[in-house]
Records
---
Amino acid sequence: MIIKIYNYYLSPDKDLAKKLRRILGFTPRRLNLFKLAFYHKSMKNSKEIIEHYNNERLEYLGDAILSTIVAEYLFKKYPNQDEGFLTKMRSKIVKRKSLNALAEKMGLDLVLSTYSQGKLSKAMMGNALEALIGAIYLESGYRYTKKYVISKILRQYIDIHELETVDDNFKSLLLEYCQKHGHNIDFRLINKYKHEKRDRFKVAIVLNGDEVAYGDDFNKKSAEQAASRMALTDLQV
């Protein structure tokens, strides 16, 4: 308790502690750990001399924990649904686009902007959310993290019943369409380049030997989704 009071009122990072309290509902003890959760590898910071000072390791940990919590939550919520349904529902919740939107709703951009000297991207938001979950786990353990994710994220920001009827996995829809109609399809990476100090990918969809659509994004999966959406539109599916 004393450490939390110090972090909130006296710490050099007390402004961060106050922002985190508004977002999380509590003041972290290990403030430096939570601070690290908001350092994307593309950001300039005063600790550049420290190699790998970014949130990638926390993001890796948070991604695994979040996936486990969501899987268990869905398993208990839908006792009569099969593995395919549960897998799709989990994917809808933990996919990059959903996490980016969740992070924005939670107000993580208010913290990210403190440490970023460049333009914030939506991908940074989702990365920070996963890293934040990793930080909560390291500070408070799995049981508390599970309770937090379910009560403060899943139930507060996600309409799970609306999600049941939504299918925006454009790549999956396109693959099903091509299989049904006997089309040969391939996803081809045609360019990888740097944009705002980050990797960016351009993907082409090759349908029966012809490039019919393109997608461009900060990760390959998102680029494939963008290209698939364009292809589905052109095919009037």
---
Amino acid sequence: MNIAIKAALGCALGFIVVGALVGGGRSTAPPAPSVPLPSDQVRFMAAIKQARSQFTSAPNELAAGGFRNIRQQAICSALNGQSASGWIGKVAYLSTNGDGKGVITLEIEQGLQVSTWNNALSDYSDKTLIDPDTQFFKSLAAMKRGDTVRFSGAFFPSNVDCVAEQSVTLAGSMKSPVFTMRFSSIRKL
């Protein structure tokens, strides 16, 4: 048999073996659990999504800015008070601040997050950072980015957004908001 043919067959066989070993490029990770979302979470997400769409399609900056007030009213209507109970999200960020206190950000849909503060100065009065001496901190230490979780917690009141939002700019707040939360529970699904 010709050496070129043998080499080609050897390469082809090698690709087949490697492809079988690595799953042919397909992910072997299990699909995310399909869990029904609480109705207030669905309404909250819809309020954010609608305002984002209106903001990005506004004909000018003045018109775009007006949609934040409309979103504020929609958020207040969507929430049962200033809390989330049994909401579903994914761990987007899990770390500690300079003092060793827990910092966590959960993504409830693409471009929409709830989070603790990430530093003691911003957290001075809200007390969202998670004490490392608690069981809550220890349970979070076993989680990783991408984990689907069920969580509960309290938002903080805001005259601008109904509940406090961390973005520095109007565009950041409307396009990819991060709402501040003091979490009371987070457990992996």
---
Amino acid sequence: MNFDPIFIVYALAAYLLGSISTAIITCKLMGLEDPRGVGSNNPGATNVLRTGGKKAAIITLLGDMLKGLLPVLAVQQLSADGLALAMTGISAFLGHLYPLYYHFKGGKGVATFYGVLLGTNWMIGLAALAVWGLTMLAFRISGLSALVSASSSPFIVWYMDGSETLMIAVSFMAILLIWRHRSNIKQMLQNTKPE
């Protein structure tokens, strides 16, 4: 697979878009408290739901998902190369986790992760969301649902697509997502209520 320098431009643009915090901007525009200073202090949809209500949470969820979806869809129109898609998706995801505009302190990446999956292959994205939904129905814990879904995503990619490049990219993002949920894992192990 040949490396095209334009991939760097795609990745940089995706990172900059991913760095925009939907949660912080939404809460500010709606006159709500900064999500980084209330609840779990996480600028994500779950914390916004708890501290700002459903409307703000839905906007945050959709915005964070679009940050992963739109760059990948754009690159699909410009290049059919799997490496370009993988780099773009990872960069958007990293932008959400480590945003340039907010001192590299971002969210946990769940919605953006699903956006990347949906943009890359909508069937893979829907399968991963289905795992999240079924786990949520069974246990009613958002963090656990994200962990189970992220952990299963590389296997979903392997079964439904078979692309080694995509499987590596999704595995990398899943590992980071799990790492970002380490406080949730600790809370679950201690039998306290996680996010």
